[in-house]
C-alpha cells in the first residue's frame, strides 16, 4: 500500500494518491491531472477510482478530466447530484483498490454531500481517514457553503456536530488524518500548518472535538468570527458539480504568445483585463496603463478569485519570463479559463515598441512618517478585519478599507482625494493601488506596509476585547 499527499501551497490543498496491487485511487485531484496519470504509469498501475470528498468551493477539481483520460469512476458521497457520469455512494459503501478498502462515511455539515473516506489496510485494520473539509488539523470546515440549499448555516453546523460525534470521534486514536486543506485556506478559520496528523491528537487539541461540547456550544463556536465566503466559491462549486472545459485546451489558449501590437489590439477588441503577475516592486516601477497587479509569488489564486468577479472575464497576462504556463494553470485552478495569451517579452517588449507605461508612487516608511506628522493626509489600511482590529495606526486619518471587499466599497472613498495605502508587508496594498488607480483614484503606496510602520514612532493602537474591561 502506498499513500502520497500531493500538497499545493498556493491553495493550501492536499490531493491524495493511493495505490495497492496495481490499482490506484485519487482523492480530490487538482485541475491539472496529467501528473496523476504519469505517476500511475510509472508505477505500472491503473487509476480505478476518483473520490471527491465534496463539491469543492475554493478550487476546481480535476475529476472530470481525469475520468475522461483514464476511464476511472468518479465517486461522490450520498446526496450529490452531477451533470456528468458519477457513482453516488451510499453511507458505509465500500470500494476495493487492490488489497485495501475505502469505506464511505457520510459526514454532512460542511456541505450536504460531504463524506470522509476511511482506508482499511490489507490486514483489515482501520488505517486512515481522508476527511476533506469535514475535519482539518485544528479546525473543521465552514458550514455555509451548501449549493442551493434551504438549510441555514446553523442547520449545517448542527449536522457537522452530529457527523463528528457519530462518525469521526468513535474511530481509534491511532487513525491518521489526511485533510483537504491546511493553514491559509479560507475553508476554515484556524487551520494548522501541519497537513498530516493523528486523530487522537485532534481529540485532545481541536476545539470542535471537545468531549464536553454541546451542539449549541459547537454551533456558536464554529460560526463565531466566520466571514462571508469569497465570491468565487459558489461559482467553483457549480463548476465542480456541472463540469468544465478541458484543461489542456485552456492551457494551450492561454499560452499564446502575443506581440505588443497584438496584445494591445486584443485588449481593446475583447475588453480584456490586463493582469500583471510580476512582483509588486516591478509593478510600481512600470506597468501597462490600467493593468491590475496580483503577483504570482503571493496568495495569487485566492486573490484572483476574490477580486475578479467574472469567471469568463477575458484575461491577458504580463508575467515573468518562464512563468506563463504556471500562471495560466493557477488561474484555471480557480475557474478562470478565459486567458487569451501573454505579452511576449513582457514589459521590456512593451517599452521597446514605444507603448505608454505608468507608475505608482511608492514611498518609504520614513517619508510617510514625515508626511503623517504634517497632518491632513488620507490613509487606507487594506488589511483584513482581524488584522486591523489587532493593531493599527492610531489616527482619525486612517480608514479601514479591506482589500477583500474593495469592489463593493468604492463609494466609500473620494476621487478628489489622494490616499496612502498600506497592508502588512506591501503585496496587498499594491493590488489595491492598481485597482483604485485603474478606476481613476489617486493613490500612493507605503513600501513595507504596517510591518515597516511599526518600526517608526508613529502611534498605534491595539484592540481591547470588551470582556477584559
Describe the structure.
The chain is an alpha/beta fold. It has 16 helices and 24 strands. It has helices at residues 34-42, 63-70, 153-168, 199-205, 215-223, 232-242, 247-254, 260-269, 280-285, 300-307, 324-332, 346-352, 365-374, 385-390, 427-438, 449-453, and strands at residues 2-8, 13-20, 23-27, 46-51, 73-76, 87-88, 94-97, 100-106, 115-120, 126-132, 176-179, 197-198, 257-258, 273-276, 292-293, 315-318, 339-343, 361-363, 378-381, 391-393, 398-400, 418-422, 442-446, 460-462. Strand 2 (13-20) and strand 3 form a beta hairpin. The longest helix is centred in the middle third of the chain and has 16 residues, at 153-168. It is globular. Residues 465-469 have low confidence and may be disordered.
Question: Quick recap of the structure?
Answer:
This protein is an alpha/beta fold. It is built from 16 helices and 24 strands.
How is the topology of this model organized?
Elements lengths: L1 E7 L4 E8 L2 E5 L6 H9 L3 E6 L11 H8 L2 E4 L10 E2 L5 E4 L2 E7 L8 E6 L5 E7 L20 H16 L7 E4 L17 E2 H7 L9 H9 L8 H11 L4 H8 L2 E2 L1 H10 L3 E4 L3 H6 L6 E2 L6 H8 L7 E4 L5 H9 L6 E5 L2 H7 L8 E3 L1 H10 L3 E4 L3 H6 E3 L4 E3 L17 E5 L4 H12 L3 E5 L2 H5 L6 E3 L7
Parallel strand pairs: 3-4, 4-5, 5-6, 10-11, 13-17, 14-15, 14-16, 16-17, 18-23, 19-21, 19-22, 22-23
Antiparallel strand pairs: 1-2, 2-3, 7-8, 8-9, 9-10, 11-12, 20-24
Helix pairs in contact: 3-5, 7-11
